[in-house]
Each structure stands twice: as C-alpha cells, then as structure tokens.
Amino acid sequence: MKELQQKVKDEGVVIAGSVLKVDAFLNHQIDAQLMKKVADHFYEHFKNKGVTKILTIEASGIAPSIMAALAFNVPCLFAKKAVPSTLTEEVYTTDIHSYTKNKTSHVVISQKFLSAEDKVLIIDDFLANGEAALGLYDLVKQAGADCIGIGIVIEKSFQPGADRLKSEGLDVLSLCRIASLEGDKVTLIGEEE
Amino acid sequence: MKELQQKVKDEGVVIAGSVLKVDAFLNHQIDAQLMKKVADHFYEHFKNKGVTKILTIEASGIAPSIMAALAFNVPCLFAKKAVPSTLTEEVYTTDIHSYTKNKTSHVVISQKFLSAEDKVLIIDDFLANGEAALGLYDLVKQAGADCIGIGIVIEKSFQPGADRLKSEGLDVLSLCRIASLEGDKVTLIGEEE
Fold first, then answer.
1. What is the pLDDT of residues A169-184, one digit of tens each?
2. B26 CB near a chain A CB, below 8 Å?
3. So where does this one cross the membrane (chains A, B) (predicted)?
C-alpha cells in the first residue's frame, strides 16, 4: 500500500536500531483517513472469505479493526490485557509477550462473542515476533472458530512473525513490509540493495 | 440518539446496581455501524466549531473517536495510561481515577500532537464522575489549546460528571443519558416516573 509505505518512510522514527515509532499516525495520534484506506485494502483481499468477526487486541489494533469492521459490516472484538470487573462470564485466555515492552499480558475475551460458527479475520497494527497474532489465533482455536487470515498494518519482515504465522497455514496480508531498520533508516521490502 | 438508547436498554447489563456493562457493542465487542452513527451525531452538533483534533483515552474511547475523526477529517489522539518506551519526547500528564476499576492512571500525551492552535473535541465512551473527561480537559489546557466541547456515548446522569463539566463552561453532548440503574434496570432520562 503505497500511501502507507510513504508515510512510514516520511514519519516513522527508528529507535535503538530495532523499534519503529509511528506515533504520528498509528500508535498515539491516528490518521483516520489512512486507517479507512488500510481497512479498504484488507476488505479487498479478504472480502470473499465470509468474515463474520474482526478480532484484535487493545489498544493500537482498535483503529484499523473498527474501520475494517465497518467495511465488512461485522462486529469488531478486542482482546483485553486485563480482566475488567465487568467481565463476569466465561473467558478464553492466552498469554502474549511483548518484546518491545518486555512484558507478558494475560489476555482475555468473553466466550459470548466468539463461537465455532465464526470466521475470524485477525487484525493488528504491528507484526514482529508474531506473539500477539499467534495469541489471538490461539483464542480463535479455543473457540473452535475458523481463522480466515491475518491483516497487518506494518510488518517487520526481518523478524520471524510472518514466517511463524505462514507455517500455521495462515493467509497473512501485510500492507507495509520493512526489510531493515539498520542505520536507523527504514528500508522496505523491494528497496534492499 | 434513539438507536443507541434502544441498544443500551436491550443489551446493557446492570451489575451491582451501579455499573452498566455494554460489552456487546461498545467496550469489548464493538458495533462499527453504530459507532459510525454515533460519530455522525457528534459531527452534526460540533461541525461548525472548527475542530482540528479529536482527543480520547485508551482503550474504549478509540472506536467512537476514530469514527468521529473520519467525519471531521482531522486526526484522533488517544491519551495513554502508561508511558511507552517509544514516547521519548516531552509529554503533558494528568492523573485520572477510575471508580469502576478503583485505580488511578498516570495519563500522558506527547506535546508534539497538541498545540495552542488546536480546537479540540474530547470524546469518551462513558461519563460518570467525570474524571476521565476532566483529565483530558486538563491536558488540553496544559497545551494552551481550546476545548470546543465534549462528546459522550453514554452518560450516567445520576452521577456528577456532566454537571462538573458544564460548570467549567463546556458544551457536553451525551447521546444516551441514563437517569437510574436502580433495581438493576436501565431507566433513561425522560422515562422516569
């Protein structure tokens, strides 16, 4: 997705050689028009798969997911990183480790909102080691639902997440694929020397 | 907003006489079409105020806010409840207490994304005691920006939040106003005996 890729190059900031900060349009301030276009790309790719639900994880996954939910005309469900006091019924849970935050979250969704009849599109803002997407996939499997694919806004292709998901047989669509952040510079797939 | 009010009555669950659980369409599973209509109502009310930015707080404020950002064609900024490692520049901070969670969060936004030129519309999913909205208003004032109003999806009108905001001279638009949750039943403003 050209516009997104240009935005990542123009406004992304590389920290410590491996962390990409995109808080100008995705992780803190959010470009709503861009999120709508991101969602349209997900829709174009997955529209014939019978998607019944979008699944993501709070908080930065919500913006692209709610736009995708609008495009697919299905509900969006976001996994929570802490069990709220209002979540009193049965839950599916999994542990997701964030390398960036060096923290493992015990993630939950209510069993009410995911069933064996669902065809789930998982969406997230970033794919690096694949921990979040694999955790969400685990929740889908616990529900006996079908995961029809994974939509990712930004993939750090030099980390193993995409390969881990594909080795599970999952259809992964990443709209911006980063080959390297070496020299504190964003190099996209296809731009390598 | 009739459709929202009906949804709250049909799908909202009252817990312990004072907490309203709306995780079927707002706080866990999200109804994207409904969020778009919510945003359209905010737009209709505030469209002539020169809004330059939508401000909310993670996580449940993001869905209505990103839809509003799309309607107003401005960026959405969400305050974070923890300082991420990637947030390395100067921040505005405030403390927000959640009575439901019995927890005070040290909330931050990057100074980069809010300036004295901004006209800010604050949006949140719930208004009860007003802690979150007043905290966000505090961030707007720290930036020297102008707060043109507050858009709320569900207001618990029997709690003091709305009055606290209005006593600051703020224009508060709440799309569903709840008079009481007594008897574990949702009674809207206008429905009281």
1. 999 999 999 999 999 9
2. no
3. none
Contact: A86, B15; criterion CB under 8 Å: yes
Record the pTM.
Answer: 0.97
Q: Give the Cα separation of A123 and A75 in Å (integer).
A: 13
**pLDDT tens-digit series, residues B93-104:** 999 998 878 889
A chain contacts of residue B80, beta-carbon cutoff 8 Å:
28, 59
Nearest CA in chain A to B101: A85
pLDDT range class, residue B133, cuts 50, 70, 90: very high
**CA–CA gap between residue B130 and residue B134 (Å, rounded):** 6
ipTM comes to: 0.96
Average pLDDT on B83-102 reads: 86
How many A×B Cβ pairs under 8 Å?
Answer: 128
Residue A55 assigned ligand-binding role: no
For A122, residues 6+ apart whose C-beta sits below 8 A from its C-beta are A54, A55, A56, A133, A136, A137, A140, A147, A149, A150, A151
Q: Where are the domains of chain B?
A: 34-179
Question: A30 in contact with B at a CB cutoff of 8 Å?
Answer: yes
Eight-class DSSP state of B21: E
Contacts of A75 in chain B (CB under 8 A): 25, 29-32
- Confidence band for A89, pLDDT divided at 50, 70 and 90: confident
What's phi and psi for A3, nearest 5 deg?
-60, -40
A34-179 maps to which CATH number?
3.40.50.2020
Whether the CB-CB separation of B72 and B48 falls below 8 Å is answered with no
CB of B84 less than 8 A from some CB of A: yes
